[in-house]
Specification:
By secondary structure, the protein is mainly alpha-helical. It contains 14 helices and no strands.
Amino acid sequence: MNTSPHTLLDEPAVETRETAPAAPPPTRPLYWSVRRELWENRSIHLAPLGVAAFAVVALVIHGVTMPSHMPGMLGNDPAHAGSASVSYRVAAILMLATAMVVGAFYCIDALSGERRDRSILFWKSLPVPDRTAVLAKATIPLVVLPLLTFAAIVAMHLALLLLSSAALLAQGQGVAPLWREVQPLRMWAALLYALAAMALWHAPVYGLLLLASGWARRTAALWVVLPLLAAGVLEKLTMDTLRVASLVIYALVGWYPRAFAPGPRDGVPFPPSAPFTPATLLATPSLWIGLALAAVFLAAAVRMRRHREPA
């Protein structure tokens, strides 16, 4: 049997093409880096779940120990209309504050921690660029933590609604007034939108904390807090003004009056009647200036991770 020389020459090429490993997707290092952050920092998901469980238990104890407040919390007391909605909104605000605190503490330790325990020597031996590692760390407070917080809020509200509905049915009353007052779907939409607005608004804060974590050899939090505290005290003593304090408050909660349009009598945030105003939020120059600063801070943090030696 004669075999064509071209066939013999072609066979190794075909085999080479079949055995060559497929190129991994470019997003795989980022995906596994985010998984690594979740695995190393259990507080990212334990803290929202813990606060949600605490809020449910606290509201149940409050209702049991103060029977006069129970009708308002169950939405069947006309004299205290809106009390049930306020309870759910206050619990959600506690969750949002928890997410902000957890994100800040995570960022301030994200880069200094791996230098302190020298684990950075191992992680740098892997084919993961510094840019991908820093982006994965920035993804935690900007994307992962808001989504986990939203899931915990929904679970918390569902637990409260089920417990309240069971209490109403046990008393022989309907549950429609409670669900109509709380408006869970509308409240969850508002909270998901609020978490997205918070992430965009707080991006420069998280970027600054990551930069401080990459730059400072130790006590990175002090390098962020002390200059602001000193500037605020000096301003108050010399000019008797509070512009630094106002700037800090604006950086933390300035997103709310731009993302929503609450009425003058809406004391507790996220009332059902407050419309969403994304156009106002996106038209705020401070938002875009903050995002530009966040990009600069993250680029500097990448450089710090690349050149800083383990502590």
